[in-house]
Specification:
With about 150 residues, the chain is mainly alpha-helical. It has helices at about 1-30, 60-75, 100-110, 120-135, 145-150; strands at about 45, 50-55, 80, 85. The chain folds into 2 domains: about 1-35; about 45-150, Cytochrome Bc1 Complex, Chain D, domain 2 (Orthogonal Bundle). The chain contains 5 helices and 4 strands, in the order αββαββααα. Helix 3 (about 100-110) packs across helix 4 (about 120-135).
């Protein structure tokens, strides 16, 4: 019984190796495949010496960006969460009174939060910051502009 199992394993190994060699030969004789398109997006800058080049988010407004990017941690109602980590509430958050603080946190990150704004355009960062600062019990009416975001980058 043991000898038959060993023989089956050897046969299977040889078949796999032959298929791998054939696939390798086909790949070498096949015309060159087109190189993958380069990633497009916003220069992410330097994060501990690593260059980040990521795709931009395509959401057209601050609310959709919040739902796609922020709500996973800060929750859909912006009340934050605790569990494997602590995700601060954005609802009624007095720190958001400073537009520059909010921009900085989105673009550069803070504590455990990554700088997700590095994957957004300046206008998208402004949109999501404006959305959070005017929703969830926050009533900060001074609008953030893309130009302000650009100065923080």
């Amino acid at each position: 019984m043991q000898m038959k199992r060993t023989s089956n394993i050897l046969t299977l190994s040889m078949a796999l190796a032959a298929g791998s060699i054939a696939a390798s030969a086909d790949a070498q004789s096949a015309p060159e495949a087109a190189a993958p398109a380069p990633l497009t997006g916003v220069h992410g800058g330097d994060l501990d010496g690593a260059f980040i080049n990521a795709r931009s988010f395509s959401e057209p407004d601050g609310e959709k960006l919040y739902r796609r990017v922020c709500a996973g941690c800060h929750m859909p109602d912006a009340r934050g969460a605790q569990g494997a980590g602590m995700y601060p509430a954005l609802a009624g958050n007095r720190n958001l009174a400073s537009a520059d603080y909010a921009i900085y946190v989105v673009v550069k990150g803070l504590h455990g939060m990554p700088g997700v704004g590095r994957m957004m355009t300046d206008a998208q960062v402004a949109d999501v910051v404006n959305y959070v600062r005017t929703h969830f019990g926050n009533r900060y009416g001074d609008k953030v502009t893309a130009a302000q975001v650009g100065t923080v980058r």
